[in-house]
Here is the input.
Amino acid sequence: MKIIASLFVVLLFGCRQPSSSEMPEKIPVNDPHSAANFNEVVTKHLDLDIAVNFDEEQISGKAAWTIDNTAKVDHIIFDTWRLAVERVTLGTEEKSTAFTLGKDSGYLGRPLEIKIDTGTTRVNIYYSTSREAGALQWLKPQQTAGKKLPFLFTQSQPILARSWVPCQDGPAVRFTYNATVRVPSNLSAVMSAENPQQRSPSGVYTFRQQKPIPSYLLALAVGDISFKAIDHRTGVYAEPSVIEKASWEFADMGKMVNAAEKLYGPYQWGRYDLIVLPPSFPYGGMENPMLTFATPTVIAGDRSLVGLVAHELAHSWSGNLVTNATWNDIWLNEGFTTYFENRIIEALYGKPEAKMQEVFSRQDLARAIKDLGETSMDTRLKLDLAGRDPDEGLGTIAYDKGFAFLRTIEETFGRDRFDAFLKDYFSKNAFQSRTTEEFLGQLNAYFEDDSKGLEKLRAAEWIRGVGIPSNMPAAVSPQFTSIDSLLKQWEATKQATGLSKLIVSTNQKLYFLRKLPSSITAEEMATLDKEFGFTRSGNAELQTAWYTIAIQKQYKAATPYIEKFLIEVGRRKFLRPLYGEMVKTAEGKAWAKQVYQKARPNYHPVAYNTIDDMLK
Here is the structure.
């Protein structure tokens, strides 16, 4: 059986089996979302010198790339998206060279092919961005918390970096960078790098990222930004009117870093800071190295949503340190990180809290598979996104099915041994990009002495199979079991008085809302609203759950609050279910279009591209 288990991954994935003590053999990566010839000549370091122009909504300047021409080819190809390339030179002497921009391929952009010599080590690209750059959101003063100064932030994941910097825009390519950024003197700039904590009177900022990162982690924010330290290596950036609330909400950041290190080894990025962006930021958080970008929707005033910080911090190991080699392997980033997040939550807040989060994850997974269809190929962990925007892969399956697979590995081999494997995996593969096949090769090699465990794991069913494998461990929370009893009582009596004293925490309330019967009426909702105040809640997770039901049941008391929420909040996680529910009826779709007309200017392209499709 030991021989059969060892052959299993070879036969399934066709890759050499490394021993547990050696590095895996590096094989060329086929990235369907990049035109770059990085398997022949690869970028290693970026010297970026740019100016930020709010009047023109444009970034312009010079991207100077240090390259390694391993194959001694006569050209290098970069990814671009609607960049205006003025000229290209080679070397420090700036020798002019020929270049061509290829055919526009929609979301993939246009390849920039540059003629080089076999000995070329530096390529200088002078360029400017377009107003349509998908990575950039330019905010007017009224769209910020302070209402006085403009704001700019980037979102490069998954393949939007090419819209603001010409680059080899695939996660298999890693580079260090230095940057000089010129902004209006009344604004501050921060990046995914070593950051200043004070404003520069000249408006000129310099940055250094000494660790190699993929292009999707290249990030910039410019605005009225203040800083407040949490401890010696963590702190918060935010607009002045938000900084105190943010620093209070994220007071446990330092403890989270300490807990993560105890689990899986040293934090290798120096500082861990967080910036709270304006509400239009389309994600909950973005794990930009040394500076997590975060939505203000996690500032609930009770620290109940800080699991997002644990998630983005965990990416400092799973994603930033060891990265998926292509977007088909996105579960290696998000599934690992969701598991790691859960372990941080358990270490800091206890097993009951972690179990509640795991139950939610299983609920989200079941819902996603129901929506996609149990036989959908998109329910596999190893995706095939060729011919599609890789943003389609950034969904629940990668997060929650990936998390469930890692929990299955933990249950199969025991937590202590699985922790030892993960610690070894992060150390062995640090600052490298890996495929699913390479991960499975290392997993198989590490546990090769337990052939029965490898057979029981059924990794092929998890990775290549659709739906949910039958060996997924159960997720049970005693706290939620007690709420199930309260729900039965409520369904029998319809009496809500006193429930808010028994269902107290955010997780408990969220579970209660998720379990409400589909037969609930608007009148019954009114009694629950009187008891809990869900409509007026300041917690975005609870608001979304409640507002979704309110739309279904035409609970009119919530209508103005729903409209206000959709106009002010740009996080796609919350927008999709609400607009999705609205468009199910003709009346609701008309209402959605009316609200969207006001809200769309506040959304990032990542968000409005999704909602545009929903409202067609």
